[in-house]
Amino acid sequence: MALHMLQQQEKILAFGRETPIQSLQHPQLAAAGIELWVKREDLIHPAISGNKWRKLKHNLLAASKAGYRQLLSFGGAYSNHIYALAAAGKLFGFETLGFIRGEQHLPLNKRLGFVIDQGMQLHYLSRSRYRQKNNAEFLADISAQFPHAFVIPEGGSNALAIPGVLEMMQEINTQKGGFDYYMLACGSGGTTAGLLASNPSGNIVAVSVLKGGSFLKDEISLLLGEYGSNCGTTKLELMLDYHFGGYAKHKPALLDFIQQFEADFGIPTEPVYTGKMFFALFDLLSKGYFRAGSRILAIHTGGLAPC
To answer: Is residue 307 a part of any domain in this protein?
Structure first.
């Protein structure tokens, strides 16, 4: 058993690769004298990509070191986190359990079909029950029912998520140094907390993909506290007007932008996270939000799983 755990941990540590930072050229950028770079975290792995891997890495190591054989987490029917967790479980030798918000709808969408194929067991929770997922009593019940499961919160955002994000920031600093703005999509706050914990050279512009996402700043502060960082959120600007109706919702303007963005730059995005982030970036650019002559790093957090 000890040998298996050691081999499992070595496999986790060996996974992934340094991702490139790609320069984008566009007339809007040239007119403002702004450099735009993209950290291509989507290239880590087809299924375990972007910030999902960064946040899962040290959770998986902790689960292995503690001898857990199951991973349990929560998400919606289109969750990138659940998708990545199922793939990671199969790759690294964990059983996986996914607690899904809402009732089962058949046929399953492509993402849930994929996680079933990876061996994940799905459990459905009513929306009222799902809202209790962070309550101590609810988690105690879950742990009693699944004593061999290592519980990871929705989105993978906990204190163990932050070291993986810090590793990404170390890559960035080695590759291109500091930037004036770091821009990313924000759903549960773990990646944003990791960026803040790195004490970045510039400001962080986080685009909420949730309707009514103002609570995310408090969530990010809590994560920083759990990690032991006192850096605070003074460098954070949380953008709340680019959710397009809410999580996993979209409108024709967003879909048109995504199509044009890939045609212009050859970079695929999706309407849940990264499409909204890049839409916000160019909208803010047109409004003069970014200082002339500044350097922007947009972090492509993956999430290209089929809907």
So the answer is: no
pLDDT score for 2: 80
Residues 141 and 179 in one domain: no
Low-confidence ranges of the chain (pLDDT < 50): none
Q: What is the pLDDT of residue 307?
A: 66
In terms of residue numbers, what domain contains 262?
A: 17-50+159-300
Q: Are residues 62 and 202 in the same domain?
A: no
89 and 123 co-located in one domain: yes
d(CA 119, CA 302): 22
**Total of domains in the chain:** 2
Residue 226's CATH number: 3.40.50.1100
Which residue from 130, 44, 41, 40 is spatially nearest to 88, judged by alpha carbons? 44
- Output the pLDDT for position 17: 82
With contact defined as beta carbons under 8 Å apart, do 233 and 220 qualify? yes
CA distance 286 to 134: 40
DSSP letter (8 states) at residue 201: S
Separation CA 290–CA 206 (nearest Å): 14
Neighbouring CB atoms inside 10 A of 212's CB total 10
Q: What is the pLDDT of residue 306?
A: 74
Check residue 6 and give its pLDDT.
93
**Residues 46 and 169 grouped into a single domain:** yes
Residue 122 and residue 98 in contact, taking contact as beta carbons nearer than 8 Å: yes
Task: Give the end-to-end CA distance of the chain in Å, rounded to a whole number.
Answer: 38
Query: Up-side HSE of residue 30: CA atoms within 13 Å toward CB?
Result: 4
